[in-house]
Amino acid sequence: MNTHPMKLVTIVCEALARQPLTQLLAETGAHGYTLFTVEGSGTQGRRTAEMEEFANIQVEVIVQPAVAEQLLVRLEREFFPRYAMVAYESDVRVLRREKF
Amino acid sequence: MDFLDAVRANLLSPAVLFFALGIVAALVKSDLKFPEPLYVTLTIYLLVAIGFKGGVAISQAGLGVVWLPALAAIALGVLIPIWSYSILRFAGRLRAVDAAAIAAHYGSVSAVTFIAGTNFLRQINQPYESYTSAFLAVMESPAIIVGILLGRVSLGERGAIWGQATRLALREAVFGRSVLLLVGSLIIGGLCGERGMASVEGFFVTPFQGVLGLFLLEMGMVAARRLEDLKKVGLFLLLFGIGAPIIHGGLGAVAGKLTGLSLGGTTLMAVLAASASYIAAPAAMRLSLPEASPTLYLTSALAITFPFNIAVGIPTFFALARWLHAMP
């Protein structure tokens, strides 16, 4: 089986940041993403998810390493000061490299 | 009926009692929880039902009687954020961007507070103009737009006033789910008229009180979970959260009386002016003024002003409207 190294960037943030975030993904060249509603608790309190204002989303996107770096840099610079958010990257291996 | 009877009638209505149950559920940390899709479903139902009913009422009354009070409603929506901003900024010493975001919330309206107001009038058998829900529809956006402009200017981003974030927020303010559903159902109700009402009455009118009870149960929990944030907002915002609805409600009552609304309609205009948005405004502010603290505006609108209006504000505005209408 032929697998290729890629980066998985995971972003957990407030649901109201969804629109600017998905736009950033498009701008940095991600070819797609997966988004789901999550709940939990962190330094900014409990996110109870009973309405959108208090809900979190998790966005997962698989991209090439250069794109992942650019994405994380822009997240740190433009999003972290404004939105409740955590982001991290991890190594993954994918089939069909051309999809990403 | 005196004022205390009105307060009692309000507090003992199913809707307000369910709201109280929601608060209790959150305070005792019950495992009761509404899934988010149910919350959204109940919101859609309430907005469509109230919009449709308003549209039918407009088709009967004619636009001729609606436009003047509607204009007064829009004027209130524009003016409330301007003086709220000044008070929050200069008396409350809040950051400019926070003052602008909170001002937008208080100028905009809460549909559920309005619906609770109609519910109260029904409890005490006080007739009102059903077309007042049209005022609900036109009051939601102007304050959000004014708030965004105030915030952008205060951030020194005059050049970026019409930047992309603002355009997105304006889109949210005008085409967001609550305005879209309200205006859409108003038009549908207006086109269908009485005959259309007869066909949907069984779904949109008869179960309405029960759905409102369920929704307020949920809102009680949502509001009470914000109570722990009260410490973070400070005394000034606490006082503002109670003082602003009283003053704005008074202005709304005067506007309603001057534009020729009945006692019931005047009460509802006061309720609209007094209410603070917590659906459309937070979403628009998060997009356009992400620098503003959501804790401040959500806590004051949701944990202070909303419960105040539901429990005490509505009967107070009724008493005020009655006093105005008793004057020659």
Summarize the helices and strands and which ones pair or pack.
The complex is a heterodimer of chains A (100) and B (328).
Chain A: E1 4-14, H1 18-28, E2 34-38, E3 40-42, E4 45-47, E5 56-63, H2 65-79, E6 85-94
Helix pairs in contact in A: 1-2
Chain B: H1 3-11, H2 14-27, H3 36-61, H4 63-91, H5 96-107, H6 111-123, H7 133-154, H8 164-175, H9 177-204, H10 208-225, H11 230-258, H12 263-274, H13 280-288, H14 294-326
Helix pairs in contact in B: 1-14, 2-10, 3-9, 3-10, 4-5, 4-7, 4-11, 5-7, 5-14, 6-12, 6-14, 7-8, 7-9, 7-13, 8-9, 8-13, 10-14, 11-12, 11-14, 12-14
Tell me what you see in this structure.
The complex is a heterodimer of chains A (100) and B (328). Chain A is 26% helix and 40% strand. Chain A is α+β, with helices and mostly antiparallel strands and 100 residues long. In chain A, the strands form two sheets. Chain A has a four-stranded antiparallel sheet, with helices on one face. Chain A has a two-stranded antiparallel ribbon with strand order 3-4. In chain A, α1 packs antiparallel against α2. Chain A starts with a strand and ends in a 6-residue tail after the last strand. At the A-B interface, loops of A face α10 and α13 of B.
